[in-house]
Fold:
Amino acid sequence: MLSLTFNFSPLSGNLIATLLTFVYVFGLINLLKWCVLKFNLPQDISRKIVHIGAGSTIGFLPLYNDLHWSKYLNVSVFVLWIFLLVQKGLFASPEDEAVVTMTRTGDRQELLKGPLFFVIVATICGTFFYKDFSGIVAMASLGWGDGIAPIVGSRIGRIKYTILSTKTLEGTLAMLIFAFIASVFFVWLIIPIHLDFIRIFILALVATLIEGCSPKEVDNILIPIAVVIAANFL
Structure:
């Protein structure tokens, strides 16, 4: 944590860690906007890179001092984006960075669905499941698993199936692989004493099954709920 490494006060260290999350999130969004406008990066790809990047924000948690209330500032960037997404979803122009990088079609109202659900879930996980095994696996599975799955499914997916929405077997397999790998990495990074490969694999499988049968957009809510509930039984 920054406060011990650099001999900062707990509050100062946590404020610096929070500032770094803001630089990271806003820097990523502006970089992707540039890539979309300059290099014609497909918006559906940009949207999922933002999704993955947002989920990876939990990688900043080791920088926080757990002994001070300001550890909960880790969710401040997501709280801000709750308000921004509502405002942008209602009033933003087509050139707005959120519309350009977080929507499939350029329709600003898309921001009020999946992206908004994501930041609400991230806020809950960072507050009520701060450095908790279930919260970390939930965010890693949602960020990486659910982020990679549609990219793989839409680009190379051939074997389709439909439950409540159409998915591909290839995308579902990618969901399982990346949910597991990302969860292992972030659990090792944040709470290494709780690294349990079998438990993580089972939770990644639960996340995959939920993603495979969830309607679009709603999976951003259902995946973390399912992972947190399942983790309490394992």
Notes: The longest strand covers residues 160-162. DSSP finds ten helices and two strands in the chain. The beta strands are 160-162, 166-168. The CA atoms of residues 114 and 217 lie 4 Å apart.
